Amino acid sequence: MKSFRGWFRNLALARKLILINVVFIVLPLGLMGYFAFARFTETTERKVGDYQLQTLKQLTLNIDTYMNELNRLTVMPYQYPKVTDYLATRRTSGEPLTLDEISGLNSFVTQVFLNGRVDILGVSLYGTGGASYVVMPESQYVTTYKLDENVSWLNKFKGHYGQPVYVATHDLSSSGGNVYQAFSIVRELRSFDDGVTLGYIVIDVDPKFISEILSKVKLDAKELLYITDDSGKLVIGKDHGLPQAAPSLSPDNASEGVSHVKSEGEGLLMAHITSEVTGWTTVGIVPVSSLMKDTEVLRTYIILIGIICVGLALLLYVFIAYRITQPLRKLSRLMRSVERGDLSRAFPVSGTDEVGMLGHSFNGMLAKLSELAYLLYETEIREKDAQIAALQSKINPHFLYNTLGSISMYAELEGSPEIITMSNNLSKLLRYSLSGRKEHVTLQDELDHVSGYMTIQQMRYEERIRFTMTIEPSLLGSEVIPLMIQPLVENAINHALDKGVGRGRISLTADSSSQVLRITIEDDGIGMNAEALEALRLHLRNTKELGGRSGNGLLNVHRRIVLHYGDEYGLSLESMPYQGFKAVLKLPVITHQGRAREDDGVA
Amino acid sequence: MRDTGCYSGHKRNILITLSILLLAMLLVLVMGGCGTDGAEESPQAAAEPVTLEYWTPFSGGDNIFMTELVQQFNREHGDIRIDQINSRLDDYYSRLRTAILSGNAPDLAIIHATNLPQFVQNGYIEPLDGLAADTGLDWGQFNAKIAESTVYGGAHYAVPLDTHTLVLYYNKKYLKEAGLLDAGDKPLIGKGEQGFTEFLQQLKAELPPGVAPLALPSTRIDSVWLWWSLYNQMQGGGVFYNPDGTQAVFNNKGSLQALEFVNSLYQQELIPPDINDAFKLFYDGEAAMLITGVWGTGAFEQDENLELGVVPVPVIYDHPAVWGDSHTLAIPAKSEMSAEKRNAAMVFARWAVEHGVMWAEAGHVPSSREVVESGAYAALKFRSDYANTANSVAYWPRNVKQWTINEEIIRQFEKMIYKEQSPEQALQNAVDSINLQLKK
Question: Cross-referenced InterPro entries, in alphabetical order (chain B) (predicted)?
Answer without folding.
Answer: Bact_solute-bd_prot1 (IPR050490), SBP (IPR006059)
